[in-house]
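hey so i finally got around to running both of the ones u sent me last week. sorry it took forever, my laptop kept dying halfway thru and i had to restart like 3 times lol. anyway pasting them below in the order u listed, first the sequence line then the structure token line for each. didnt double check formatting much so if smth looks off just lmk and ill redo it

first one:
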Amino acid sequence: MRSLLEHLYPLPRSITGDGLRATLGALRRELPDLVLNEVPSGTRVFDWTVPPEWNVRAARLTGPDNRVVADFDKHNLMLVNYSAPFDGSLTLGDLQSHLHSLPERPEVIPYVTSYYDRGWGFCLPHADRVRLEPGEYRVSIDTTLEVGSLTYAELLVPGNSTDEVLLSAHVCHPSLANDNLSAVAVLVELARWLQESRRRLSYRILFAPGTIGTIAFLARSPEARQRIKHGLVLAGLGDTAALTYKETLSGEAFIDRVVKHVLRHLEQSAVLPFDPSGYDERQYASPGIRLPVGRLGRAVPASYPEYHTSADDLSFVQDTSLDEALETLKQIVTTLEIGGLKPVNLAPYGEPQLGRRGLYSSADCSNARAAVLWVLALSDGENTLLDIAERSGFTITEVMAARDRLVEGGLLAPGSTKRAPKERG
């Protein structure tokens, strides 16, 4: 994951363009079955229109003393993303409206965009901005805004069921390691893990530019929307805050229960109610879509000082945070896979004799015995494994281990997601 972060970090990403394609091309080298989709400029996607494709060759701001004030080659946040081309000279007074800085954080470069406004500008540390001398400043912005396309990528990992789990991350932010690339790197590793064995559910992995890319995917994929039963937006997984889950619109979807169950067993975690801001979970929750998609991240967007600045660099992302996020997502997937299964007790009349089946020996730890008893008590064909885990306080892994022991002992039918017929006594 660290290696992928380092490779992707300097690429000049935006919502369209060659930097975005280079990023998705790098992801396809990691995941060869990843499919890249191109949506032509001018395409109507719901209430939006795919904008002209933006590419940048160079951008530089030079002062009266010929000193370079801002240079895209030095740091790509120095150019306002989606700046229109411009070549000319301005006085410092006229230039100021095109400059962006953060007085409260004078050493960092802010991230500023101009996607749907044909403007241009430069971003620089406020400490540098206040030192600018009066005079003529040379502006050279070599960019293009032309008919092209928007690119997004998806990978379908088929399972035994056509019911899908959507896992998405945005890929449009340049040189922002946590807010963008941390989730991308984790999702690539998770996708690789998902491909290692056949699963009950199918998984759709989506890498798309924020807002417009996700809306384009939703507009162009009505069949996939019908199959998506659970989903997660991944963002900001690399900082040191606790893993935080933002609920779906209803707060009562199966994915809400699954994620909250998994997080409950971490040392630190947090759960937030849905609100119609943030990342693309708001697109999936819109009235015409209404997909049960939550968001897994860490620090709340805009709540930490590094957010959308040059301080969100590779050193800000912690390997231990990436590892924890990946392992947590594996637990979430495992719980989605088995949590809806409804096991059936095959000896439901009183407690079966566990000792002669090796299920109640003195060698068993008390937790293992207790988990076995809980599974037996609640396996009536109505309760799911997640119901049992929530009621008993055990993790889904512990409940699954107890279920497997009981199946081996001939006392339990492993169950399905369908309602079991009732037996007569």
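and the second one:
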Amino acid sequence: LRALIFACQKAVDIYKEIKDIDDEFAKAIFYSIVAFSLKMNSGKDIGWKGNSLFSPYLGFGQYPLFHFCYHYIMEHTFIKKEIESAKKDYREFKLNVQENIYSNNDLNTLYSYYLHYEKDLLQALKNIEKDLKEDLIPYVEYGKIANYIISLKWDLNIDISNIKLYLINNLKGKKRELEMHIRISSGIEMENDVKRKEYLELQEEMVKSLNYNRIKVFDFTDIEIDAFCKEVESNYNRYYTDRGFACLINIENFIDKIKKCSPAQILSVRRVFGNVYASANIKEILFNDKDVIDKLIFEIEKLFNYSGFDNVQKLQCKWFVGNLKDISRKLEY
């Protein structure tokens, strides 16, 4: 009851900040805050997990917790520019769902697999796999398909590996707006940790595929540090738009390149990182980078004792770690 009262209070506060709020958006805000309040009340991890606008993990089913709601609950301030973006995205998502009602007997069998004989279910899966191979199923169904095939795998021990590959590969380079359809599902709620882990991993692979080639991933197999610095300096806005910078870096290969750097080159890298994360509200933009920054701190600290460095190079690494720790603090909630 306390959780429900808390959710009502927060929802009312948020409604006051939104102009021309429609019923669907109001409902999504309220239900998601109720779910989040219950998670807070039960002692579950409530660290932000999601993209820049919403988190399905902290909400429930088709009602994700919007980031501006989370920020208000945790920080007691509004990020007003996010409200309009979230309202627009959610409205388009709901309209898209309504306009793309897709009738398919095989998918209907999958979505109610617990009502069918196993032989009928296996035939439906075979047909779905064929349709996915030929790219005949609307992408807006992919999130729901992912939800059900994971449940099916663990409930009935059925091989879904080919279907998973098609769900990932078919989305390569497709519209970013599909992310909401991938992450929000009206399917089965997964309380089982093993099921949930695989489902979330599949979601991440699908979103990663969606963003394929949107911005360059730094694997450092064909790029030197000087070229890396130049590339980053000319693309700050792209990293902000696509909500990722450190997460694009292959840390192992990056460290190998750093080991070959002069003191001046390490300074250039430090400046690049400082510029990328200079914004006062950077945690609202690149919050998914924190784990990678923390891993990078750990790896750079190892270079304090690297035999291939002289004391000036080691000093630059110590200063770099200091910079990274400041960035990590800026990314904390």
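quick thing i noticed on the 2nd:
The beta strands are 54-60, 63-66.
anyway thats it, ttyl
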